[in-house]
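can u pls check wat happens w/ NDP
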Amino acid sequence: MKNIAVLGSTGSIGKQTLDVAAANPDKLSIKVLAAHSNVELMLRQIKEFQPDFAVLVDKKAALELQGHDTGRTEILSGEEGLLAAASYEGVDTVLGAMVGYAGLRPTMTAINHGKDIALANKETLVAAGSLVMEAVARNKVSLTPVDSEHSAVFQSLRCGTHEEVKRIILTASGGPFRGKKKEELADVTIDQCLNHPNWSMGKKITVDSSTLANKGLEVIEAHWLFDVPYEKIDVVIHPQSIIHSLVEYVDGAVIAQLGLPDMRLPIQYAFSFPGRYDCSFGQLDLVKAGTLTFEAPDLEAFPSLKLAIECGKAGGTLPCVFNAANEECVYAFLDGKIKYPDIPATVARVVEAHHSVDRPEIEDIEEADAAARRQTKEFLAGLA
Ligand code: NDP
Ligand code: MG
């Protein structure tokens, strides 16, 4: 039995993680739930899973939750509550499904307390990949990917040795604006952005998928997860989202993982690895899937992909700064404060202005993240 803490339980990945747990009650036990402020959903999750404790980081929301009958489940709040969730002795595996840089501290805390990590929260690896992977090695814990592309690569990597890998190929759906030129993206709306063709996800990652910043973050994520240089990681657009990613070996063999676009499979595999559970969330029908197509990404229309990879290659604090600026811009766009093309343009300005620190310690990362957010807000205020 795996005893699990779900950080970000009320989000898209969190809810699907609970589906996976409900489908495998003899293998997965939910001991802790944590989220930001969604009282109503947290209450329902507590009733269903009866964890030892639940956390709402927002103190007002936690207080409201405490006013309800939560049975045997204790309610904690604030950053302290979140870190208690990440380090709880009754848990062996922490599923990281918070959104953004906010996931870094709890993930590091969980690793430093010897927890195995199932990681959806890619921003953590982007911001502090070297520190996270060092901590994983030092504490001898496992870190399994939840992101569908990385789960596909993780599965495909089992067909050869590290030395035999020639190239990792990440697939991307291309998002709702695939095929559009730069000029056509000037006035796209929030609703158009959130209308992803294949996946239903949280708002931040959905905007990132439309700008291809998400794929840029995923290239950096792959670099750290699989210890592969950037030169060996490629991106190909595959609009059907059936092939979730591929690994090319030195003998020319290409191994891929295919499946329906349903996150419950990669979530489940992150728990079941190195085995598989006898529990399927739907079977791919190749005839129904029909034609699978591939194209090169348009780096002019979607400059965030190229910039993220450049930041990854440059290393130091630049990936952290790219991520921080991107988060701030995406939320400003979702708040209706800026236009769509302001996202990549402002991220590029913030990255350009940053003086990167090589071999950063956690303090350098925290400082770079905070400074990048301040700088982004300044630039965005100038646009108004
Ligand atoms: P959502 O926005 O749907 O959910 C985010 C979750 O994190 C919610 O439970 C939210 O709580 C919680 N949260 C947000 N901020 C904080 C905070 N400061 N402290 C504690 N909890 C917080 O996001 P997704 O589920 O879509 O994405 C989660 C992560 O997984 C992201 O890093 C994303 O890139 C990655 N991912 C997502 C995929 C998907 O299909 N959705 C696919 C691959 C990766 P509340 O509801 O209370 O606000
Ligand atoms: Mg992905």
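Residues 362-383 form the longest helix (22 residues).
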